[in-house]
Amino acid sequence: MISCESCGSDDLRLVALLPDGRRQVKCDACGHSWVRGEARASPRPISTFEEARTRFPGPKNVDPQRLAYVAELKAKFLRRHPDPQPAVGPYWARYQMVFSEEGLRTGAPQDLKDFANSDVGARPGNMSVFNRAWNDLGAEVAANRTRATIKYLLYGPASRPLEDRLTDLIEERHGLGMTGFKESLLTKVLCVMQPDRFLPILTYSSPNHGKKEVAKLVYDLDLPDGARVQWTIGRLILWSNDVLLTLAGDGFAHMQHVSQFLWDTAKSAESQAI
To answer: What are the start-end ranges of the E strands in the chain?
Structure first.
């Protein structure tokens, strides 16, 4: 039997059921009102895209002394003015046409296969899985799947962020993607189509220096382990790219120039503490 905690009367009524499950009760005898019960635990709000982006490690997590030292290395590197690879510009200009919406509709299958197996501008690594799938499917079917993959990546629904479209293709969600046309080749497509934004470092994490390893070796910055965090692979790939570009700063001639500096510095860091 419930009674008023003030006067002891049982002339009580329910005033309101609160959102957290508690009840507001009022005693009509004396007018006293109070809340009964325990509040339900509220679920943790789902992190939004922008909230997740804000939590991603970045320049704020790099020691200022480390930044200053790398800036000195950068100044020395830029004084050498390495020449760009002459074949990259024309090659990428050609594939910007191949990957245009019209080019994807009308382009030759061989152009797509050649792109997957070319090292010009960026090295995608061993393409045996892609080549085997291409041969098993036949050129026309394989080309159509590759076209659909590139089209979704570049021109997919605007409501789906590029980071998440990239994840969809790598993980073959909803039947999307072409066998073997995964992280390194998808990133290479982005390098071709947005050459002022994407570094030709084609993997997030790799024994041969992906973006995660470069960030650690050059800036002593620990980027998330893809197997242990909630961030999707597409977000890790793109956000790590943006972090490295911000850290590298201005003064470089092109993305290959930036990547060469990062790779050179990373290799040096492996042989000596910087």
So the answer is: 12-17, 23-27, 33-36
